[in-house]
Write a structure and sequence with these properties.
single chain, 371 residues, Aspartate Aminotransferase, domain 1, Aspartate Aminotransferase, domain 2, 2 domains, 7-stranded mixed sheet, 10 helices, globular
């Protein structure tokens, strides 16, 4: 592979385009440095930290226009831990799952291994497509994935039967449309759409879900305290977490939510901005003879993570290696898909003009690597 130096006038101002963690805005880091001395290293059960929890909770309620009665739950651990919590404390007997990529399959695997649950009901779709939602008789949970991070496919959120609805929104929250009234547990980590670090999960919890948490916890089912959703909910109502959280993560996420509210007003405003950014990437790919959106159905294309297939004459690994050598990072395709592909995050913290600059850099590299 040739040693290529991309002209500096083509470079984005910020070269971080990874699908998780997200680019963190420098302004948020500056605010963390400014207030950190008064918050970091103090008790998470005292006002300085609890005020940051409340700030994040209130900001998220405003951003999502949360329905009355919904709680904003915070718990330590990412989606991997939260899937276990849901298996212990939310699924009563059987769950329906829609599996259309790597991450939508992970919660399925958790419930399949839980000996106290019946085998899950699974609807599969090929990577790059999405399954249709349908009623699932005998299932008490419909488990949806708002954004399949591995493939760049977005799933519409809706109720289709009487089952409670759990939505893994880890890479979709804060940039894809949702009416929380169509969900009972809408959960996500903070290192993607909310431009923070990992280690915490946030969930909007409906009154029906909260009632089920309590009913299962009061049964004879064993639930580890770390994974107990009633414990997490009780602490969240006090503006704290059961275990010690990463306070820096709280502050960075609260900064991002405040910035989103100030710039876009609410989730609808963010979604409109995300639509513009998605048009930059998908339109660019459609205009190239050697590139094309991996997701063929335009209505299924994510506005948070774009996947772009390259023609065999342009090797994506070589393109990404050249970009990385020039400070433009983390747009490798998802490894298990095994495609000649770019995967580009478009999270709210990523500037539209930086995405335009990214495409110009890829054009420049592809022209020199094409064979």
């Amino acid at each position: 592979m040739p040693d290529l130096t991309i002209p500096s006038d083509l470079h984005p101002r910020d070269g971080r385009f990874g699908s998780g963690p997200s680019k963190v805005r420098p302004e948020a880091l500056a605010e963390l440095a400014r207030i950190g001395d008064g918050v970091l290293g103090t008790s998470h059960r005292k006002d300085p930290v609890r005020n940051q929890v409340a700030r994040l909770q209130d900001g998220l309620r405003a951003l999502f226009r949360s329905p009355a009665g919904y709680d904003v739950l915070l718990t330590v651990g990412g989606a991997t831990a939260f899937w276990e919590s849901l298996a212990f404390g939310f699924v009563e007997r059987r769950s329906r799952h829609y599996r259309f990529g790597e991450f939508s399959g992970k919660f399925t695997a958790v419930t399949a291994k839980a000996p106290w649950l019946d085998d899950p009901d699974v609807v599969d779709a090929e990577p790059g497509t999405r399954p249709e939602l349908s009623a699932a008789p005998g299932c008490d949970v419909q488990a949806l994935t708002h954004n399949e991070t591995s493939t760049g496919v977005a799933q519409d959120i809706a109720r289709v039967d009487d089952a409670l609805v759990a939505v893994d929104a880890t890479s979709g929250a804060g940039g894809l449309p949702v009416d929380l009234a169509d969900t009972d547990v809408y959960y996500f980590s903070l290192q993607k759409g909310f431009a923070s670090d990992g280690g915490l999960t946030v969930a909007f919890v409906s009154p029906d879900a909260a009632e089920r948490f309590g009913r299962i916890a009061a049964s004879d089912r064993y639930i580890p305290t770390f994974l107990d959703l009633t414990t997490a909910l009780d602490n969240s109502r006090k503006n704290q977490t059961y275990n010690t959280p990463s306070v820096a993560t709280l502050i960075l996420a609260a900064e991002q939510v405040d910035w989103m509210l100030g710039r876009f007003g609410d989730l609808d405003g963010v979604v409109a901005h995300q639509r513009e950014k998605a048009e930059v990437i998908y339109g660019w790919a459609a205009d190239r003879s050697w590139a094309a959106p991996f997701v063929r159905d335009p209505s299924a294309r994510s506005r948070m993570v774009a996947t772009i297939d390259l023609d065999e004459q342009v090797n994506a690994d070589e393109v990404n290696a050249t970009l990385r050598a020039n400070g433009i990072v983390d747009t490798d395709g998802y490894r298990k898909l095994g495609r000649n592909q770019l995967r580009i995050a478009m999270f709210p913290a990523i500037d539209t003009e930086d995405l335009r600059a990214y495409t110009a850099c890829v054009d420049w590299v592809a022209e020199r690597l094409a064979r």
